[in-house]
Amino acid sequence: IPGATVVYSITVRNSGPSAVDANTVFIVDALPNQMLVGSAATPSFTEGAPASGLSFTPSTDIRFSSAASPPTSFGGCTYTPTSAYDPSVRFVCINPKGIMAGSTGVPPSFTISFQSQKNDLAASRLFQNRMIRHRWANQPSGILPEDDMQTACLGSSENTGNKRGHSSDGSTGL
After folding, report:
1. Across-strand partners of 20?
2. CA-to-CA distance for 23 and 53, rounded, in angstroms?
3. pTM of the prediction?
């Protein structure tokens, strides 16, 4: 239902045996065409089982971008939403702090959830996103096109779902 408020969640798992370097977990999520996010996001952080070992402060560890292409660093996420559900927000950037634990069989994980709204402007954003996908072919290896992305590694973390992920230095750790 267009205009409905829903909870949008991003779950990250580290399926690799090594811990991720301190403060380098950086996730860029391209919002689906049908979702709007803005000042009403009210993000929450939920540890998985086993726990990730990370901490999350909503006022400093989540940012937004209205850029045409995915930001390559947390510092590149500079857009401040101007409304509760801002159609200009194209990317959600997440940078929790600490060292993400490595897997010892069951991957440690965390989930970031926030309020979003179903968008009835999906058709116009679909066209814009298709144009962006063509430009992604020339992006650094750490940024993966949406069509090719089902699972991406973040350091040794697994970013599940249809997300983009890379460490703060732009590498994928693959």
Report:
1. 100
2. 11
3. 0.69
